Amino acid sequence: EAGKLARPADFDYFNLLDRRYSQLRRYTPTLLSAFEFKASNPAAAIVEALNLIKELNYTNRRNIPDDAPVDFVKPRWLKYVFNNGKIDRHYYEMCVLSELRDCLRSGDISVGGLNLAVAAIVLWNTVYLENAVNLLKSEGVIIPEEYLQHLSPMGWEHINLTGDYIWNLKSASSIDNLRPLRRKKINFKLS
Question: How many CA atoms lie within 13 A of 51 on its CB side?
């Protein structure tokens, strides 16, 4: 019974990837338009391919041109990316994204838009850190100035980076009208 269900040892799951292409297309155009990718020399062709896909998305063209960058296509992908002498859009895009993942991990490609996200988080945290310090000082808590230089606005464990947000515009605040600070019991020395 198990033998009937098991896939053969030489089974290539790449055959199944095309079925998942529509799910990939749900987020790929947004991802590519939101970030600017920069590459070191070995990954330059991948960034070229990403820009080509971005352009195809923008112009609603479906076919990959014959002169598209393909230097990065690894042997495992060859029979899928090149189909009857033409470049298969689905497998080309999946191959490019697979290579992008590997290059992001290795550091061969960097993400420009990510710096903007980090800067926004740091700014937001800095505003709240300043408010928290000022509130504590107004309540008589002694905070030596030399300690403040060790606070870092880089933490983001409290930031949801999955993109799943529910915005309540009625309670939206401005930089001058922030939500109340979360209070924990403190055991600092009061002046």
Answer: 12
